[in-house]
Amino acid sequence: MTTPLILGLLAGAILSGTSLLYATLGETIAERSGIVNLGLEGILLIGASVGFSVTAASGNAWLGLFAAGMAGGLANLLFGWLVVTRKANQLASGLAMMFFGFGASALIGARYVGAVIVGLPKWRPSWLAGFRWVKATTLFNYDLLTWVAIPVAVLVWWALFRTRWGLGVRAVGESPAVAFAAGRNPAVLQYQALSCGGVLGGLAGAHLSLSLTLTWSEYMTAGRGFIVIALVIFSKWNPLRAIAAALLFGGAESLQLQMQARGSLISPFLLDMSPYILTLIILVAWGGSRRLAAPAGLGRTFYGSE
Amino acid sequence: MKSGLSVSWIVLACCLAAPPAFSDPTQLIIGVVYVGAINDYGYNASFHQALTQVATNLPGVKLVEVENVPESGEAERVMEGLVQQGAKLIFPTSFGYQDSARKVAKRHKDVAFAFAGDGDTAKNFGVFFGSTQAAMYPMGVAAGKMTKTNKLGFVIGMPIGYALGNVNAFQLGARSVNPKARTVVVVTGGWSDKAKEAEAANALLDQGCDVVAMHVDSPKTVIQTVEARGGMSIGFQSVEARVLAPKGWITGLGFTWAPYFTELAKSVITGRFRGEAVYQGLGKMVAIAPFGASVPPDVQDLVNTVAAKVEKGFNPFTGPLTDNTGNLVLPPGAKVGADQMGRMNWYVDGVIGKAR
Amino acid sequence: MPEGGLTAVLRRSTALRTTVRHCGIGVGALLMFAAILLAAGKDPLKAYVDTFHYTLANSYGFSELLVRMTPLLLAAVAVALPARLGLINVGGEGQLYMGAFMASAGAFLLPTAPRLILLPFVAFMGFMGGAIWAAIPGILRAAKLVNETISTLLLNYVAPLIVSYFVFGLWRASENSAYPQSSPFPDAALLPSFFNTRIHAGLLIAVVALLAYWLLLEKTRWGVDMRAIGGNAEAAQRLGIPVPAWIVTALAVGGGFAGLAGMGEAMGIAGRLRQGLSPGYGFAGFLIAWLAGGRPLGIVFMAFLFAIITSAGDTLQMTQGVPYAVVNILLAMILFIVLARRSAGGTSK
């Protein structure tokens, strides 16, 4: 009796964890460069809305996915213009981006509410489809985004920790002045990090509208952007830990629904609190040693060469 | 600083704001407040389509519609705005608008309100709803006949009495033709949380349900999710939802509000509106959608026979009934009428879920 | 607004320039938004005319602006007060919900108490709800464990879930459709409203809060201490100012104001506790305080502006069929222009 529960739990965790993972990876890159985007919720919404609208208009989900990534990247570049070039306050700019995302996604998607689309194609290797419990769940029946989610996380980790570019990004995140002195251009690196992060955020949003729900509706992200802000901290700004973090919190959601489907009710509200409370507890447990993990320059503004 | 600015704005406003034109032959402006989008293939679409029909059929009737209005203090502001726009008949179409609608109605005795919900009526405040609960009984019959796993799924947005009634009648109907049938309920916690609806539908299928019904604003996400996984679905809110499931569609319930709304509009135009409580079921406000291609003729006949029985007044909530914890909730002969449906707070035996 | 305050501002030579600059920002944003509306096939001029017509040129519309401003003012003070110490409170939204939650608890605890006792008690509970919710990050920060920006942000999302837990559970109304909301509050717990509008006593509380904030900063020794901490916390500590105690107090008192905003929304508007109490007043309060640079008059002006813009959303939808949410673009335009003009470090960090 517990096998279907565990498999269902896992299937559900992957289902809701995919978009969380992409968004977490995107925000991790941005925060590694020292920039926190509180408006991630807006980026996700823009991704979901643009992805759905382009798919509905063109009939091609791949085009929609591409457009969502581009839109997410562009939106983050706008954010970058504010916080990097204009050196605006990051928190206020982030909240402004959130409001912008609410509005822009509603305007773009308004025409396509209720449209019926063919979502991202899903594919399950035939040798796996033979297993009874695999067949009974969504396990291994995934779209491209889910299939490559973990490789993408590894790629992001590699880019951040094993390349010269990543070294530069992290150096900027620790101390723009030092990076500048070492001959790096902090602004350029931050723009690059933000655009990568935006693309991933856009894809995360698109996964919600193009694969999970096949629907666009206003505010459909329902706070996932903020869960991700917590997940980035929870995973200690590490793309590999982000995989576990996304699965864990996707799993919390899944657990609640699977338990309901088995007739026992855990309050959904208490479970929904867990990402935030766990993150806070972990932060307290790290205590003052936060600097070991968080980019030291996070949230600060770099004024130039001084 | 602020005063100077607002004065200049008021001056500007007075220069720019031309008085609204009264010369057009509009006889009645109907204001509608929606909690979601009018193209949702569901609850909101059912109102939008019915009222559009009213506006095209009756000359001089104009619609002013406001979508995505939260069930908070915001709703009161929107309804006041509709009154200012000249609306003389207002449809607050979601349960959560109740307090706001009543406050606005008290302030504007000359504006008629038709609230989709329950509670007291007043001279200018009527309540109405489609009694879907009894109509869910034949839906359960269809599901009970079609299921192979004997596990039926039901996604509901919020555990309110009406939703519980739908689930219960569904289970009673299924049980009447299939003693092994059980209904598994998952609550998403909101009428329109799409991602959760998709996850809920998947969770039900993961647990072995092969027929899924729903009571959320838009059946679109659930039906599409179930269809993609090869399950069967029973639709709700709008009969058009069947296009979303070319393979797995069994049947479904939709609302047919247009005749009642036409009456209401006429009564406001002629000044004869009186707030009443109107609950109509199958054959009036509620209709059964066409069957899907996979439903065999004998099942179709059976469902139609049961539906005809319900239309003639059969009440599935007739005692003795025990709830799913073993308590006798309805003694022999007792009934739950459409007007008490909102207070239902138990699941009938055979439903897997917790009511409270 | 007190007459003395206004003339004092006008006397300053920068006042006129400030006004002109603010108008310039407003006009710029309106033009950009007009371009977006045009592109969407709508009539921007009619949109603006209608908005004026239904908000400023109309007594009901104007009263609703004040209704909308009430929680915004309090939520802004909740941010501005700790900001004087260099503390960043992004948690107004959660503090607001906790205020509403505790105020409701108070009302349900003493359902038969006379108004004279219940109203102050409920207000006290509302204040305490927000204060406790902000004191947690304050303590964590004072103990140098967790940065208050992150902790206030995280707690934002816990508070509405606590409210949901209770309205779906213990406090769930039993009348009619058993909708997930609490039973109505006892009449004695409801804030009095004025002029047959929805303007309620919360507005008075907000004005008093603003005045208290201004007095505290400008006229008391505490204000000097706070500025000293904001300037250089370590130096202030060496001067004998109890910095950790100040951090907790400033955040808690700020949170208390946000809690009062929540109390006002529950006791003044909704009449019961329900989900979705606030459409983001806490976040808007952060932006208002930031845009105003923490200045009391600036907060009034910006809250007024926010109220007008959000009202425009209603009008736009009713007269032009533009989704309400689109008005957020106008809000964002104004913010973008201000953000791009002003470099960081100016006010809050």
Give a verbal description of the structure:
The complex is a heterotrimer of chains A (306), B (356) and C (349). Chain A has 306 residues and is mainly alpha-helical. Helix content of chain A is 72%, strand content 1%. Chain A contains 14 helices and two strands, in the order ααααβααβαααααααα. In chain B, helix 2 crosses helix 9, helix 3 packs parallel to helix 4 and helix 7 runs parallel beside helix 8. In chain B, 60% of the residues are buried. The N terminus of chain B is likely disordered. Chain C has one domain: ABC transporter involved in vitamin B12 uptake, BtuC, CATH 1.10.3470. Chains in contact: A-B, A-C, B-C. At the B-C interface, helix 1, strand 2, helix 3 and helix 4 of B face helix 1, helix 2, helix 3, helix 4 and helix 12 of C.
- The shape of chain A, in one word, is globular
What name does CATH use for the topology of chain A? ABC transporter involved in vitamin B12 uptake, BtuC
The greatest inter-chain interface is formed by: B-C, 51 and 59 residues
Mean pLDDT of chain A: 88
Beta strands of chain C, count: 0
The CATH architecture designation of chain A is Orthogonal Bundle
Structural class of chain C: mainly alpha
Main sheet overview of chain C: none
The sequence of SSEs of chain A as H and E is: HHHHEHHEHHHHHHHH
Descriptive terms for the model:
heterotrimer, A: 306 residues, mainly alpha, ABC transporter involved in vitamin B12 uptake, BtuC, two-stranded antiparallel ribbon, 2 strands, 1% strand, B: 356 residues, alpha/beta, Rossmann fold, six-stranded parallel beta sheet, 10 helices, 15 strands, 37% helix, 20% strand
